[in-house]
Amino acid sequence: MYGEYNARQGLSWVGGKGLTAVGCQFNHTGRRVFQSAPGAGVDIEAEDSVCRDGVFRQCEFVNNAGCGLVADSGDGGYARFEDCTFWGTTAWAMWNRKPGMRFEACRFYGSVVHAYGSTNAPELATQYARCRFEDKPHPEYGVARFGQLVTHDGNADGVRFEQCEFVAHGVKSVWLAGFALLDGCRITHADAQVANGDFQALFRGCALRNCRLTEAFSGGCTNRYYVLAQNVRIGTNVFVQGPCVRWENWSSGPTGLLVCVQAP
């Protein structure tokens, strides 16, 4: 299926169970003469029904006037995305506030915002496994950057990132608030030079284990910066690698292997 150069959406999923899309291209919405909001690649927007058991495999959501993927209205969400590419060039790569969304081996280029968190039903919280987040410009259309690479600033309880890679070139990397878990992840700050003494990532109430925070400045970095950590639970094998980055405090925070505190 090709849902390209449509005026309003590449695909609006407004209801039903068991939708499956394989090898589809939901690209360039609103990039011709006409455009109608929200202009997404795919919009999961249940109307008089529910949206359940969606599967998107090896699909593209690239260069849309709106977000690559939106899930923000109705009794929907509940979809799995496998080996998909989301590339936000003027809008968010993804905007998701709905339960039951899982992303496996997907690539997100450009900023991603929101997640669904749940204290009572953590199995419905947003799940990422083996995904890559990077603000890499598209060779033709550029990339959309909005403050952070990944921003989940509401209730992120139960949200999980497992074996994910974050590479921030022109923005801060992560703003994550709530009892989320990062397990086996690598976060690289590459060329996004913040002011001396500023923070590059924020974790509030999260848990980290088997994670590595590092830097890769192609032209070197002279400014000290830090990872803002508030009520963070540190498990085993969490490393902060400099020379510029520090944990909790830009001037005197630790680097290297962090001490386990309230291990998740």
Features:
mainly beta; ten-stranded parallel β-sheet; nine-stranded parallel β-sheet; globular
Helix content: under 10%
Helix/strand order, N-terminal first? EEEEEEEEEEEEEEEEEEEEEEEEEEEEEE
**Topology, number of strands:** 30
Largest sheet: 10 strands, parallel
> Which structural class is indicated by helix and strand composition?
mainly beta
Low-confidence stretches: none
When the domains are counted, the total is 2
**Gap between N and C termini, in Å?**
43 Å
Radius of gyration, taken over Cα atoms and rounded to an integer in Å: 18 Å
> Strands across the major sheet, in which order?
1-4-8-11-14-17-20-23-26-29
**Overall geometric form:** globular
Mean pLDDT score, rounded?
A: 91
The DSSP helix count reads 0
Structure description:
This protein has 264 residues and is mostly beta strands. The chain folds into two domains: 146 residues; 118 residues, no CATH class. It has no helices and 30 strands. The strands form four sheets. A ten-stranded parallel beta sheet has the order 1-4-8-11-14-17-20-23-26-29, with no helix packed on it.
